[in-house]
Design a protein that fits this description.
The chain is 29% helix and 25% strand. The protein is α/β, with parallel strands linked by helices. The strands form five sheets. Strands 1, 2, 3, 4, 5, 6 and 16 form a seven-stranded mixed sheet that branches. The protein has a five-stranded antiparallel sheet with strand order 17-18-21-20-19, sandwiched between helices. A four-stranded parallel sheet has the order 10-9-8-14. Strand 9, helix 6 and strand 10 form a beta-alpha-beta unit. The longest helix is centred in the first third of the chain and has 26 residues. It starts with a strand and ends in a 14-residue tail after the last helix. The mean pLDDT is 93.
């Protein structure tokens, strides 16, 4: 039996973009409903992304770092830390469950949003049919619809991959035993965060990266510096890898074998497990987009204009399903703006140039704005300065001098157009740089701003000072 319901806004999806949308809709007094399938309510971030990975990164870091402390005044005996992977997964499950209930289920209830569980498809304009699952047979119609279906791990088309068991950033969270050894295919942020989680918990990790350095989509210095740090702690990274095929068997019969060419030479890598981290893909297959005149691009992302409107004026889209940058915070902003534009004609847009990106490894990586190469391509010149963390007093004081900070400024106006960093607390340092890029602050604005001493944030100021003086002959607090 078909059951029909009507609302002001109907949403296909249940992640960050969807919840930002119902929050803005509630502020406007709109009735809302969402159809959720796949991941539990809350989407990628709380269930299989930000929350579980950051928890496990901290577990691994806590286990790995004490025995490697830099202070002679602190000694460890033979009783080294031991980790229990199953317990870590149990703790992760408890945290995820609590946050999902508090930040999503309770929020939806507070806003009076009706939740329908099942696979939904756009039937016509702002109408969604639940075609499978608990609420199959339900049809919900709105004045406007929002597509916010998120993304899933992308599996690169590697020869033999269909016949080999492998882990992804989602499947590994259900695993109860810790892999003894892993070959990680990929060198992006997911690959690096999970490589370090597993390595710190005791897994032997080998990363196979297609390009000449990891984090190839970011400023080149960042990937090279993080690669140096990873190799120093025992993670093997092989670059310039062209993977030919994967197979099971290997030397022991239980291993996974990866056949590849490395800078033209044939090599075979074996490990107990394979982890595929070759990007993500928008969840846009078979959700009725073509039936209502909505286009997708070559990556499968929903095509929207600057105001998140699709080719169908009754349907908006937001979050990972519209493509890069696929970040939880961006998805939330897009969902918020979509509602503003759909119901308030506010023409709200996002300056993606000023969106910061963070990799939560140890040391952390963070960046915002234009890279040196991008600026060179646009202007034929680049005015950039880089300072090493080993020259920053706080880094010396705590004896963690890994990393660097690079500032890219406009060659005529001195406005800061890009900041790229590796180091302890980089994730906490990037907001100041983001404000500088967003509001067109100059290097002199940063130099003129008093920073607390000693802090890692001084590294950003030092990089700006490097445009005006020789920082190697500078005392700690020189302005």
């Amino acid at each position: 039996m078909t059951v029909n319901h009507s609302y002001d806004l109907v949403i296909l999806g249940g992640g960050a973009a969807a919840f930002a949308a119902i929050t803005e809709a509630d502020r406007r007094g709109l009735s809302t409903a969402m159809v959720n399938t796949g991941l539990p309510l809350g989407g990628t971030c709380v269930n299989v992304g930000c929350v579980p990975s950051k928890h496990l990164l901290e577990v691994g870091k806590t286990a790995h770092e004490p025995p490697h402390n830099p202070f002679d005044a602190v000694e460890y005996d033979d009783d080294q830390p031991a980790t229990n992977w199953a317990t870590a997964i149990d703790e992760k499950d408890e945290i995820v469950s609590s946050l999902r209930e508090q930040n999503y289920v309770d929020v939806a209830d507070h806003f009076g949003t009706d939740i329908y569980e099942g696979y939904g498809r756009l039937a016509s304009d702002a109408t969604i049919e639940v075609v499978d699952g608990a609420d199959a047979g339900t049809t919900i119609t709105g004045e406007k619809a929002l597509v916010a279906t998120g993304s899933s791990p992308r599996i690169a088309p590697i020869d033999g991959i269909e016949s080999v068991d492998y882990e992804t950033s989602e499947s590994i969270l259900e695993r109860r035993d810790l892999p003894e050894s892993v070959i990680m295919i990929g060198g992006g942020y997911v690959a690096l965060e999970w490589s370090q989680i597993l390595h710190h918990m005791g897994t032997d990790v080998t990363i196979l990266q297609r390009s000449s350095h990891v984090l190839s989509g970011m400023e080149g210095q960042l990937g090279r510096e993080l690669q140096r740090c990873f190799e120093a702690e025992g993670i093997e990274i092989v670059t310039d890898v062209d993977i030919q095929r994967v197979s099971e068997g290997g030397e022991t019969g239980d291993d996974v074998a990866v056949e590849a060419t490395v800078t033209g030479d044939s090599q075979t890598f074996t490990a107990g497990d394979l982890f595929v981290a070759t990007g993500v893909t928008p969840n846009t297959d078979d959700i009725g987009l073509e039936d209502v005149g909505i286009e997708t691009d070559g990556s499968g992302a929903v095509v929207v204009d600057d105001e998140f409107r699709t080719a169908n004026p009754a349907v908006y889209a937001a979050g990972d399903c519209i493509g890069e940058p696929m970040l939880e915070t961006v998805a939330a902003k897009e969902g918020n703006h979509a509602v503003k534009n759909a119901f308030g004609a506010e023409s709200a847009t996002i300056d993606y140039h000023a969106v910061p990106k963070v990799v939560f490894t140890s040391p952390e990586v963070a960046a915002v704005g234009t890279t040196e190469l991008e600026y060179m391509n646009d202007h034929g010149t680049c005015t950039c300065r880089t300072v090493e963390m080993e020259d920053v007093p706080k880094a010396k004081a705590v004896e963690d001098t890994r990393g660097l900070v690079q500032v890219v400024k406009h060659h005529e106006t001195d406005e800061i157009v890009g900041v790229h960093m590796v180091g302890p607390r980089a994730a906490d340092m990037i907001p100041e740089a983001t404000l500088a890029v967003k509001f067109g602050l100059t290097v002199d604005d940063i130099i003129d701003t008093i920073h607390p001493f000693p802090t890692f944030s001084e590294a950003f100021k030092h990089a700006c000072q490097a445009f005006r003086r020789d920082t190697s002959t500078m005392s700690c607090c020189v302005e």
